[in-house]
Every structure is written in structure tokens, then in C-alpha cells.
Amino acid sequence: APPADSVLHEALHATFGFNAFRGVQEQVVRRIMADRSTLAVMPTGAGKSLTYQLPAVLREGTCVVISPLIALMHDQLRSAEANGIRAAALTSADLDREQTIERFRAGALDLLYVAPERASQPHFRELLRRAPLTLFAIDEAHCVSEWGHDFRPDYRLLRPLFDEFPAVPRLALTATADAHTRADILAQLGIPEEGLIVAGFDRPNIRYRIQPRDQPVRQLTRLLGENPGPGIVYAQTRSQVERLAEALAGTGRPVLAYHAGLPPEVRAANQAAFVASEDMVMVATIAFGMGIDKPDVRFVAHAGLPKSIEAYYQETGRAGRDGDPSVAVMLWGADDFARARQRLGEVEPQRQAGERQRLDALASLVETAGCRRAILLRHFGEDPPQGCGNCDNCLEAPGVVDATETARKLLSAIYRTGQS
Ligand code: ADP
Ligand code: MG
């Protein structure tokens, strides 16, 4: 029988200290408690982890969580353990693997984190046969789709594994999936269509501004001047990060850099300093941000074109998780589009259509003279409000600024040439 309301709410409070579910969380948890496989599409920060952690605590047996990155797994592990949840990870970085396997088989784990490469190996399958299972949770589930923005072939090996345990429900989670990707995730993971739950994507406290990049250092300096709180500036390459960090340090604000070329201890120290700070600017590649839980980020700037609308939404979504006013500024150049088009020619043929669609969607976001939020929300299948009142185009009276007109012309000239 499904658990009574009071049981779920008491467990929510006892385990996490929260007084209420947020958004669709309760709906997702109820489905899992009723053994119904689900795909939950919930924006970053919406609280996806809780939707598998709570059932894992309430039900007998272990929830096996598929997660693509060791760093992500360890973040999750730490916060689960801080809530008294019995959790472990099986990765090459975990030296207590024997002990973890023992605990798993003895039914002494609520959560077991594992990467898809390991999950699909025969000896892991053997292990699953001899352990009590209660749920498969698939984090970053868009990785299973070639239409998604971050395809990982190993995710394709999960379905055959899950199919061996037909009584165990599946919960796929992602922040970023357009309609096409959602349908693909459902099919690839064997989740019925009625199992799709989509949370609201609107982040009304984020003000979107998208403008041509002419003098990036000056443009960003102005942004820093207007926004004294903590912020992130995304640059595209390591050397761009270094250069921008140096230039912006000249404004007198505390500025740190973050990219994959820095030693791990420097990255960890910079990240910790940013999380603790009330005025720090982090100049970073997109390697920075996943798994960071800082509610008071006041701005996110892109010094160049992001990879896709999904990536843009996810990266800008790191601003204003506390609900206070925040800004997202994108500076783009025609050369960004030219490069993106060039890369399009280099991807494998079977992925070209998807990549082209992704780039087109990004171009419409950049070139629109209409509401930016409307384009974002429609992209995620949501009906937008009539004029959001909180993006550059909604705020600036038409005709006063013809930057968008310029943008459109530039793009037609450069990006659209040669497109059939
Ligand atoms: P996601 O994976 O969707 O990006 P997380 O699971 O990391 O989000 O949760 C984001 C933050 O929201 C975490 O700090 C978490 O503790 C908090 N949170 C989740 N659910 C609730 C809730 N019902 N009430 C209050 N805070 C919540
Ligand atoms: Mg998450």
C-alpha cells in the first residue's frame, strides 16, 4: 500500500530537516514508492537528489545510483552522509571497495553510487544478483541520448542491466532535456511515457541579457560594478580564463580562476574560497559549477557563446538560487558562431542533425528581438508568460536599442550562410 502523507512528511523532516516538499518532488517520490518507473526533468537546484534518497531511506534494500563523474558522486555522498543516510561509492578513487561490497550485500546501504562503465561490467551484474535492490536512479540521464548535449555511450549499456531486474523501478533524472531528448531517454531506459514528470523551468528572479561582445573587459567591468555580490564569469579556454581573471583583478574585486589545467588542490581551494565569499568573482571554464551549492551567486556571465541552450540554462541557473534578483549576461561574437559552424562539420554524421538543431536554437535565442525567457521556456516545452518583464528585450523599448537588429543581420551574414 502507498505510504500515508504523514509517513512521507515525517521522513522528509527526520532525514533532511525540511518542512515541505518542493515542486514536483512529492509526486516523484510517490511514484517511486509505488514502484513506478519515472523520468523527472527538474531544473538545477530543484532538489532531484531527494527524490531517490528519500525512497532509499524508506524502503528496504539499496538504491543504486548511476552518476557520470566521481566528483559528483563524492559531493552527493558527503551530503547524504551528513543527513545520516548510509551511502557509499564504488569507484577507482574509493579504497574501501571490499568493505562497501560487504555492506551492500548485507543490506546495510541505502545508496550505492557507481559510474556507468562499472555498472555495466559482468562482475557488477553478479554483485547485483546477490544484493537487495530497491531502486535504480540514473542521474544526468540525458547522457543516454545522442540528442542530449552530453552523450555517454556507456549509458546505453544500462538498459540491458536494468532489464535483468524487472521488479526494480527506475528513476531517471535530468535538468536539461528538450522534448526530443526526453522521448529518447524514456525509450533508452525503458520507462513508460506516462512516467514523465516535468517541473517548471522558469527562474523569474534571473534577468537575462544577451549582447554582442565588443570590448569584453570593459563590458564585464561594468557588470562587476553593477553587481557587488559573488559571480561567475565563464570563458571558453584556459588561456582566456587566465587573461580575463588578470584583467578583472584590476577592478579591485577579489578574482579567482578555475580550469582543468590547475592543480587539483588549487581548484579545490579556489572553489572553497568562492563558496565562502560574499563578493568573489570566479573566472572559469565550464569545468566549474557542477555540484556547487552556493545560493547567493548574483551574476553569471558568459564571455562567449555557450555550447547549447541546455548548457546556457544550466550554467545561468547557478545564479540566484536563493530567489533574490540576479543577472545572466551573455557576450557573443559572430566568430563564436563561425567556429561553432565549423565544428558542426567535424562531428560524426549521425550526430550532425542534433548538433545543428542545437546551434539553431542557440542562434534564435541570441537573435530574437522578443522575450528571451519565452525562447528558453518554449525550448523546454513550457508555455511562457506574455512578456517576462525581466530580460533585456522586454525591458528596453523597441527602437531605442537596435543592437538586436544588428545581431540579426550579423548572424544572417555569417552563421546562416551555406545553410540549406
Ligand atoms: P539538483 O540535483 O536538482 O540540482 P539538489 O538535489 O542538489 O538539486 O538540491 C539542491 C538544494 O536544494 C540542496 O541544497 C538541497 O538540500 C535543497 N533542497 C532539496 N529539496 C528541498 C526541500 N524540499 N526543501 C528545502 N530545500 C531543499
Ligand atoms: Mg543533482
TrEMBL record:
Catalytic function, reaction form: Couples ATP hydrolysis with the unwinding of duplex DNA by translocating in the 3'-5' direction
Protein keywords: ATP-binding, DNA damage, DNA recombination, DNA repair, DNA-binding, Helicase, Hydrolase, Isomerase, Metal-binding, Nucleotide-binding, Zinc
Domain (Helicase C-terminal): residue spans on this chain: 216-363
Any one GO CC term of the record: replisome
Listed GO biological process terms: DNA recombination; DNA repair; DNA replication; SOS response
EC number of this enzyme: 5.6.2.4
Keyword DNA-binding (UniProt): yes
EC class (word): isomerase
Domain of life: Bacteria
Residue ranges of every copy of the Helicase ATP-binding domain listed in the record: 29-195
Molecular-function GO terms, alphabetical: 3'-5' DNA helicase activity; ATP binding; DNA binding; four-way junction helicase activity; hydrolase activity; metal ion binding
Annotated transmembrane regions: none
Cofactor: Zn(2+); Mg(2+)
Family according to the record: Belongs to the helicase family. RecQ subfamily.
Protein's recorded name: DNA helicase RecQ
